[in-house]
Amino acid sequence: MMLNLKGLSVYYGGIHALQGIDIDVSDGKIITLIGANGAGKSTMLNSIIGLVKPSAGTITWDGEDITGRDPKDIVSRGLVLIPEGRHVFPNLTVDENLHLGAYFRNDKAAIKADREKVFALFPRLNERIRQSAGTLSGGEQQMLAVARGLMSSPKILMLDEPSLGLAPLVSKMIFDIIREINKNGTTILLIEQNAHAALEIADYAYVLETGTITMQDTGAALLKNDNIRKAYLGEG
Description:
By secondary structure, this protein is an alpha/beta fold. The chain is 39% helix and 26% strand.
């Protein structure tokens, strides 16, 4: 399966937020998108998931055009977004948040198996299973947001700034878990301001500047690129 964006354009009022974006997300890979604030990264994810309607271009998933489809339909096809800011349900328990992640599913045995996998990845959530999500630390809320997404049984997990506001050690743990999720068979589309950490785990990466893809290559190659090192890695 593959996700393709072809000629994707989005306007916000008079602002051309995305300008003819072409991106391929291959099955089983970690694809990352780096860029400054306001470059259009979140707009791209919101377009894929159906929250923003493109003005031009197509979004194709497994050979089928899903451009502008209802978000419920897109999620049911296995595309899941973990939004920036976590957006857990603060007044619900960890357990209830996880149940909501499996809202579209009826396969009870598989849901139970996925819960066990989630707790193996995030043992701290199991320790806090009856705790209200709003009382968790920022890092624990990010774990819960990712775990809730995994309960949807995604084919592609899209993460918008998963390390934002987290302490370095917690951030490193989140990236380790993203790598582990990918090893377990889930394709990852990652948006991240921590360019160094994102490029380190990426199979392939795109650089987005003011709505346009300006560079693309393997994560390893971009880590060595002088322009990237100066602009995004604080080197040189």
